[in-house]
């Protein structure tokens, strides 16, 4: 109350009784206010401040993009039990919020002579076993030197980006290199499905030959229907909304480093996904390998 603050400020110059009478407030009320004002903070207030500080740190550590639910999940992962409502309140007090998505543009250019292939996915984006179903797509990223094109390969079960490549062009070699990265890292099971749109790169003979050598079955969705490749589209939206729209890179080389950091440091290892129960892609993938190959850990320990 401003009247009480004024009385406290002038307490050394004038009598409290006189000022209370002048300002038409009760003297007992003033002393009760003063006691509360200068009392040491209680446990509840201290915990609220600690939570506020931690929420601010989590938000900064995750590139200032997390919203209420993902920060709530981060707190839960650290063993901190708190309501969504309190997280929302503290974020509002801090003046921080999650990144809101922007509209995306379609970049797929279908090949005029694209061969007819089956859709093995059929919008079933939650296969039970990692490394058996993969999706790929291409997007473009603006730099000071012009466009940088990014091709990705994403594991459907874990949502982990298991392969990626950038180039100043959209030739078929771009998508072959991304798929090769995933294969060499051991993220493509035998007879696994690779799903994409009907872009010319993915329907080319060169890509089909590469997939055959890797023992992959090719699957395609319909051109221009984003839901047929929704997981790949979702990753690109996250990359652009959470990072790219908020930075400028003068060169393609610097932009490539930023892509690598976003994918390998943040997206795969730190970003929690609601579809994964607010776990990270890497933790889900690692859990799968730990269950599938327990003898590897035992051999390493020996």
TrEMBL record:
Membrane-spanning residues: none
Family annotation (InterPro entries): HTH-like_dom (IPR025948), Integrase_cat-core (IPR001584), RNaseH-like_sf (IPR012337), RNaseH_sf (IPR036397), Transpos_IS3 (IPR048020), Transposase_IS3/IS150/IS904 (IPR050900)
GO molecular function terms attached to this record: nucleic acid binding
Gene3D superfamilies given in the database record: Ribonuclease H-like superfamily/Ribonuclease H
SUPFAM superfamilies documented for this protein: Ribonuclease H-like
PANTHER family, per the entry: TRANSPOSASE INSF FOR INSERTION SEQUENCE IS3B-RELATED (PTHR46889), TRANSPOSASE INSO FOR INSERTION SEQUENCE ELEMENT IS911B-RELATED (PTHR46889:SF4)
Name recorded for this polypeptide: Mobile element protein
